[in-house]
Amino acid sequence: MFSALLLNLVNLKLFEETIVSVKIIVLFYMVGVLIFILFKSKLKEISPWNHINNFIFCLFVVGSYSTVLFLGSNYYFAEEATENKTYQIMRKTEILGPKYNRGKKTPAVIIKTEKNNTKRIEFNRNMKAKIDKADFLELELSNGLFNFDIIRRTKLK
């Protein structure tokens, strides 16, 4: 279970660098639900836990592992060739800092991709002034193994 928590941190980083819909990520966690349903009686025999604990275990462990396999394969086996695409910034926003440091906001922009998805791109705090002036975002993209674009570099315009 601890490994699933660590993998979720890896998943978060990979998700930030991949243009993929959240719906696809949710599908991988639903595989965990399907595994629980299919093996419910077997889990009852081999596990000392009750059904709720087994369900949570299957959801997070299977979901985390399958998501990291998908996102990791897409990222690490991506093409080296890149292409630049420019997107109009739909909205500029800020992400609150940690609990006792809410004032340290991280600037971010939201763009609309070709597949009609939205993608939030975060920047360093020192980029706030440039973000306020920018209307477009240029992304250097490479095609991932499963045809989901990998963000290699960002440039405000």
Description:
It is a single chain. This protein has a 5-stranded antiparallel sheet with strand order 3-2-1-4-5. The protein has helices at residues 2-16, 22-38, 40-46, 51-76, 128-133; strands at 82-95, 106-112, 118-122, 136-143, 149-156. The protein starts with a helix and ends with a strand. The mean pLDDT is 91. The protein has 2 domains: 2-76, no CATH class; 82-156, OB fold (Dihydrolipoamide Acetyltransferase, E2P), CATH 2.40.50. Helix 1 (2-16) runs parallel beside helix 4 (51-76) and helix 2 (22-38) crosses helix 4. The protein is globular. A hairpin with a 5-residue loop joins strand 4 and strand 5. The longest helix is centred in the middle third of the chain and has 26 residues, at 51-76. It has 157 residues and is of the alpha+beta class. Keywords: Membrane, Transmembrane, Transmembrane helix. The chain crosses the membrane at residues 20-39, 51-77.
User: Which strands sit side by side, in order, in the main sheet?
Assistant: 3-2-1-4-5
How many distinct beta strands? Answer: 5
Q: Which percent band covers the strand fraction? A: 25-35%
Global morphology: globular
Into how many domains do the coordinates divide? 2
Rg over alpha carbons: 19 Å
Helix % is 40-55%
Transmembrane segments: 20-39, 51-77
Keywords: Membrane, Transmembrane, Transmembrane helix
